[in-house]
Amino acid sequence: MEAPEQPLRITPDMLLSRRVDFERRMRRLPPVTLGIIGVLAAIFVVEVAAGALQSRGAIIAMGALVREGVAAGQYWRMLSATLLHGGPDHLVGNAIALFILGMICEHAFGRGQFVVLYVLSGLAGSVVSLVTSAGPSVGASGAIFGLQGASIVLFRQHRDRLLMRDRRVGFVLLVWALYTIGTGLMDPFIDNGAHIGGALAGALIARRLHPVVLSPLTPERGAAVRRGLWLVAALLAYTVLGWLYR
Fold first, then answer.
1. How far is CA 123 from CA 21, 130, 145, 146, in A?
2. 101 within a domain of the structure (yes/no)
């Protein structure tokens, strides 16, 4: 007589085999991302109208990141520079990458965590930029590289639970990263130090963020996000006041 068949033991690996379709319910028009792109475009119009792209002194006066300015106490430049761009191609390239990465990160982490990730990545990019270059430098690509670093960490950490159907996104972002770094080698206003700093910061920050695409925020995490947003609001308010009274 045959022995009875033993029941199959369920392991954690088996449970994790049920992957979440990451692109399901993703908003094709992410509101916060579009809002940031709109702000960057509006500020670029002001740059052009003010003649900020005509000379080194003009872009510095507009708020570009420059080492001697920060050394003199103008710390607001570390964020104001992330709102400026060195030309139309610089703005358009960043806007395209921001739209794609913003769609991913806003969907993955939610609006609040996304804002904190974006602003702190841009700030970290400026810190590294100050170390590697005297400036002037401008551009949102440090913050955008932060989103890219966060996306890589997200899909690496949760590769057993997240399914990305359209893998062409990764190829597009790789092309953008190579293009941006190449442009940084030729354009004196674009600093690759900010790209590196932003990417590293985004990767580190993402390790502490909660992917809401997998499960909702707990009350404790929600409170931490709100504290982060208050910090971001204070930094932006300081930047605006510093720029106005420069």
1. 32, 11, 12, 10
2. yes
pLDDT tens track for 25-83: 777 889 999 999 999 999 999 999 998 888 888 999 999 999 999 999 999 999 999 99
pTM for the predicted model, two decimal places: 0.84
For residue 68 the two structure tokens come to: 């001697």
User: In DSSP terms, which residues pair with 137 in a beta bridge?
Assistant: 65
- The neighbouring-strand residues paired with 65 are 137
Tell me, what CATH number does 46's domain have?
1.20.1540.10
Residue 212 in tokens: 């809401």
Q: Measuring CA to CA, which residue among 150, 230, 133, 145 is closest to residue 196?
A: 145
163 strand-pairing partners: 21
Tell me how far apart the alpha carbons of residues 206 and 6 are, in angstroms, rounded to a whole number: 43
Domains held by the chain: number: 1
Within-domain flag for 6: no
The string of pLDDT tens digits covering residues 191-201 is 677 888 898 99
Dist. CA 31–CA 16, nearest whole Å: 31
Q: Tell me which residues are annotated as active site.
A: 141, 195
Range of the domain at 153: 26-244
Q: Give the Cα separation of 141 and 95 in Å (integer).
A: 9
Return the DSSP state at 83.
G
Q: Residues of 127-141 as b/e, b for ≥16 C-beta within 10 angstroms?
A: bbbbeebebbbbbbb
